[in-house]
Design a protein that fits this description.
- The structure is a single chain.
- The protein has 409 residues and is an alpha/beta fold.
- The protein is built from 11 helices and 11 strands.
- Strands 2-1-3-7-8-10 form a 6-stranded mixed β-sheet, sandwiched between helices.
- Strand 4 and strand 5 form a beta hairpin.
Length: 409
Amino acid sequence: MSDSRLRDYSRSRAVLIGVSNYKYLKSVPPGDNSLDRMAGLLTGPLCDWPADRVHVVRDPRRRGGLPDTLMAAYEDVTDVALFYFVGHGQLVEDELCLALGESPGHGYRRSTIGLPFADVRAALRACAAHTKILILDCCHAGVATQPRHSLGDGHATERLIDMTAGTGAITLAASGAYNTAGFEPQHTAPRPETYFTKYFVDVVEQGLPGHPGGLPLHLIYARTADALARDRKPAPTRSSLHHADRFIFARNAAETAEASGKPQPEAPTTRESMHAAPREPAPAPPPQKPAFGPPQQPGFCPPPPPHPPLSRPTRSPVSRTIRLLLALALIPLTWLMFWPMQSESPSTRTLAFLGLFVAPVLGLWLSCSAVARRNGRLSKGVKVPAAVGIVVHGTMAFLLLIGMMNDLT
């Protein structure tokens, strides 16, 4: 490998945000591994980013001052501005929101506790970088590639890119606008990763044999998308403006191996490659004090909810069956109550009268509660006996009510 750097990144900055631990959403343990691997790739010999120009934010809990941090991060950038996120993505009224550690699963607080994509977009559009690279490894990431959400939306952005003579902006998304991304199960590898980051970094680290020069983003993305499709993983999406996809992202590892005569790693060609023994992970960059810091007084955030959103308990099939059997058993029992009504004993007649009044009401309640829809559609085996119970007990209860009114008048 040549000692000369791939390019001068002294006027560039990369911000990498990864969230793997969630309070209310399902945790994404591979997200932490993907964050480390992307940081290792950027600061490694293939990409040559200086460690002090790569700012890693791990497991932020709330939005707080993150928008201002992003603005400060890209404020002095004139060459390359790169943003990477791995974690959960949420849709809030068709707007993408990057879920942070305390993001709820439902409601509008997702956009006040999480990081709306509009904040990221505003920070990248405000900076004067020649090249803007956005990599989103989350569900619904494809929203960021739509024209109304992309970095190239509007004439103001296009004029800015024209004035700076830059190569433009590119967005690489791990999924479509209304699709989910994915990650490796923990039992398949010692250090599982999210699919998009794993395949993306694999392509860069393996290189492209026979391709002279460095690796442009459009070739990396194409090989990544092909590998994901081959292994039947979620399909990525992208958008590019002003030939940003031609940006040389990394050295070609395969070309370097050919020049040195070392054996080249073969690209995986089967689905079993996902279960192969993983290579040693790239070492994480040493902790660096970033050239910028978070705001001294973060914005106000409302207190977290006392507990996660509650859901109504489901009703099991056994519970439905018991309720229906009791309701159907009360039908003949109600008719049997007419015999004690003819008894000469006052106490017997009183008990029979109470039973005749209670049994239809109880049967009607059991029949109705058995079909209360709390867990999806009901089968005919539930609907038919429940309908019989409702009709019979409802009719008897109605007739008893009419009889009582007639006695009173």
